[in-house]
Amino acid sequence: MRTRQHVNPLGLAFAEFRGERPALHPDRPVEVEIGCADAQFLFERAAADPSRSYVGFEVRELLVRQVNQRARDEGLPVHAVFANANRHMASVIPAGRVDRVYVNFPDPWFKSRHRKRRMVDDVLAEGIAEICRPGADLLFQSDVWSVSIDAMEVFERHDRWFANQVEPWTFWKQGNPYGVRSWREQHCEEAGMKIWRIRYRRRA
After folding, report:
1. Exposed, middle or buried, 22 (CB in 10 Å: 0-12/13-18/19+)?
2. How far apart are CA 109 and CA 117, in angstroms?
3. pLDDT at 114 over 70
4. What is the pLDDT of residue 7?
5. Would you call 102 exposed, middle or buried from its count of C-beta atoms within 10 A (0-12, 13-18, 19+)?
6. Rounded to whole angstroms, how far apart are CA atoms 66 and 36?
7. Domain 25-202, what fold?
8. Helix %, strand %, coil % for the chain, to 5?
9. Catalytic residue (choose from 38, 107, 137, 143)
10. 107 given a catalytic annotation
11. DSSP bridge partners of 142
12. Residue 34: closest CA among 150, 116, 123
């Protein structure tokens, strides 16, 4: 079983963008995973549908290099970007370019003094809204209740951008709609752990 390796996303190392912007083919739909880790989720998506481009944002530079090397070796349209998505996503991805965004099992940062490091906040919501086309899909997943309800609170507060695909303040209960899993999702399901999912649509 893999363990979480925490990196402070608010550190000075992420003040300026130092990653490599992906070259997006104009005719390919784009899917983005925020906090992609080893990008297992994106690689499975790319294997299932190689006609799309897949971009993952990750704050651990070693993982970014490993993902991009694997993508080259396997010839799959996956590109990891070394960056704090909250700060730089909207400057890396053109506005209105993305069809789907995934936030899969973000670091929980349980301690009270670290809660400000949690991924889903107003800045991230604004960035997601900017890069998504109208009608784009947003899927959030976590095995931590407090992280999930905090994320829901953020997206529900920005309902001018995001429409809950069930109804307001309601979790998605129909499972993962894409049939591919990150390693964390796989572990949670095999261990019988509860997974909280939220699904939104980008409003026009």
Report:
1. buried
2. 7
3. no
4. 58
5. buried
6. 12
7. Rossmann fold (3.40.50)
8. 35, 20, 45
9. 107
10. yes
11. 196
12. 123
What's the pLDDT at 108?
55
Counted residue by residue, the chain has a size of 204
Q: 169: left (phi > 0), else alpha (psi -120 to 50), else beta?
A: left
Q: Kindly give, in sequence order, each residue whose CB lies less than 8 Å from that of residue 71, ignoring residues fewer than 6 positions away.
A: 39, 43, 77, 78, 79, 80
- Give residues with Cβ within 8 angstroms of 189, minimum separation 6: 181, 195
pLDDT of 6 strictly over 70: no
Whole-number pLDDT of residue 185: 96
Looking up tokens 């694997």 gives 70
User: Tokens in use for 79?
Assistant: 């590109």
What's the DSSP call for residue 160? T
Question: Do 201 and 162 form a contact (C-beta atoms < 8 A)?
Answer: yes
Give the Cα-Cα-Cα angle 168, 111, 122 (nearest 5 degrees). 40
Torsion-angle region of 173 (φ positive above 0: left; ψ -120 to 50: alpha; else: beta): alpha
Cα distances (Å, whole numbers) of residue 39 to 33, 131, 135, 162 = 8, 20, 24, 25
Q: What is the pLDDT of residue 19?
A: 82
Which carries the bigger pLDDT value, residue 4 or residue 59? 59
Residue type, 10: L
DSSP tag of 75: T
Task: Encode pLDDT of 143-184 as tens digits.
Answer: 999 999 999 999 999 999 999 999 999 999 999 999 999 999
